[in-house]
Write a structure and sequence with these properties.
This protein is mostly helical. The protein has helices at about 1-10, 15-20, 20-30, 30-75, 80-85, 90-115, 120-125, 125-145, 150-180, 185-249.
Amino acid sequence: MNEAMIALSAAIGQTPEAHLSIWGMVQSSGYVARAVLLLLAMFSMISWTIILHKLRLFTRISGETESFMDIFKKRGQMENLYNHAKRLKNCPTARVFLAGYIELAAQFRLSQAEGGGHEDGLLLEKLDSVSRSLERATAQEVTKLERWLIFLGTTGSVTPFIGLFGTVWGVMMAFSGIGAKGVASVAVVAPGISEALVATAAGLFTAVPAVMGYNYFIYQVKILATEMDNFSLDMLSLIDRIYIKRSGG
């Protein structure tokens, strides 16, 4: 009897073992289930693309930030730090410095254009503009770092429900088939239920890496935002010390 069943399955191009495999379940599923699985596959591919891209980006940011902060802590000339910062394409702290430095240079030019007799004192009065420039640059860098993370968060929130929809639909079709055949044995129910549960498994498989990636990158963004805020305070303190001394001279 078993040999007859195997021969019949082979005749239609599918063995019982193949039918019970994940791929066999996908092949035997209906159009709605396949559409759900295709949608989840698209979410998964895009999510992994974002995760890998962000991992490479944050690795480069870590190296460049360390290099930049080493030079800044040496308290060298700002012109040298400016030239070094322009070469760092991935360092948000360097771009914050560039924004502050450009604003500082603009204040110098404005002082010269106004012909003020006490150039440093005039600069100190307008030091708030440098602070606002640093704050604005920090906000822009945080926005750039958070780019595409919303997709990971959405994937982690939505895909389990998409998979659940596929499962509910599959269970409905399985019970519909039971009603049509008038038989409710395990042999009849189990294949349809197992095929339906593949959608839930696919939804969880898509959601878990997305949630982990989202939480990790959000944490890294918060760390970088704090580092940029601290750097802005250090830069303002450095400017304040330099120009107070010059003003006193």
